[in-house]
Amino acid sequence: MTRWEFRLRRAGPAHIDASSIHRSQLAARDLAQIQRLSLIVDGVPTELGDCFDVRVSPSDSEQIVFEGPLSHVHGLATRHDRGEFLIEGDVGDYLASAATGGVVQLSGSAGDWVGAPLGASRLGINGATVSVRGSVGRYAGHRMRRGCLLVDGDASELLAALMIAGTIAVGGSVGRQPAMGMRRGTILLADADSMVTESGGEASQRFTEPVPFRAGFLQLLNDADFDRVLRKIAGGDELPKAIWRVRCDRSVGGQGELLYPASE
Fold first, then answer.
1. pLDDT tens, 1-54?
2. Which domain of life is it from (predicted)?
3. How many domains does the chain divide into?
4. pLDDT in tens, 122-142
């Protein structure tokens, strides 16, 4: 097994498209070949070694590690398929785009389109577990097909738009129009009461009436990242006894579910 480490050489305003860096591509090359891989920087093909210091070492598991001020680096963990993709700091847009397996862990915040489809693809996250310790921008979980997206912080507008299946949990606040066009899947939010009960508003056309729901199955999940976000949603060490459940998006005949703690 191998650990590939990438440290950004210098911060700057350049737009770096790192979506071409895949585990299978790295595994087939030695260090010199990896350094010559092409990235697109401000629209110009550039050797990877000009942007990142690279280190390759043996490991007990397959790991790809990125470090540095990465907010201008986009497409990290695109099509990630197995092993761990670990990122220190904030990143740009399209984190874990079209990821199909393995684990993606981000210590900071991400831009827009987390886990969204890539190019002409119609599917977003399709099997991976993506954990974000900070916040995410617009369209997180867009067209998600399966897998899990965990966000400790906030999510901007249009969370889970056109979601097909999978699980999303957000421990902070959520922007406008979540679950727009959602077909199936599960969303767990720390606070969704106002957005699903707004009388006569747009939300009332998309969500069914809230009903009490006892989500005992959540206690059975054995995943440290999932557990951490659930505790943030609960606001303490214990999950809330009362949970509301709504179906969405009923404007498209969707059968997805949105779960959130009942107000005291």
1. 999 999 998 766 789 999 999 999 999 999 999 999 999 999 999 999 999 999
2. Bacteria
3. 2
4. 889 999 999 999 999 999 999
33 part of a folded domain = yes
Its domain, for residue 175, covers: 75-261
Residue 56 banded pLDDT, cuts 50, 70, 90? very high
Q: Tell me, letter by letter, the H, E, C secondary structure of the chain.
A: CEEEEEEECCCCCCCEECCCCCHHHHHCCCHHHHHCCEEEECCEEEEHHHHEEEEEEECCCCEEEEECCECCEECCCCCCCCCEEEECCCECCCCCCCCCCCEEEECCCCCCCCCCCCCCCCCCCEEEEEEECCCECCCCCCCCCEEEEEECCCECCCCCCCCCCCEEEECCCECCCCCCCCCCCEEEECCCHHHHHCCCCHHHHHCCCCEEECCHHHHHCCCHHHHHHHHHHHCCCCCCCCEEEEEECHHHCCCEEEEEECCC
Are residues 103 and 145 both part of a single domain? Answer: yes
Q: Is 46 in the same domain as 139?
A: no
Q: What pLDDT score was predicted for residue 197? A: 61
Say yes or no: 117 and 9 in one domain.
no
User: Does residue 69 form part of some domain?
Assistant: no
The overall average pLDDT reported for the chain is: 89
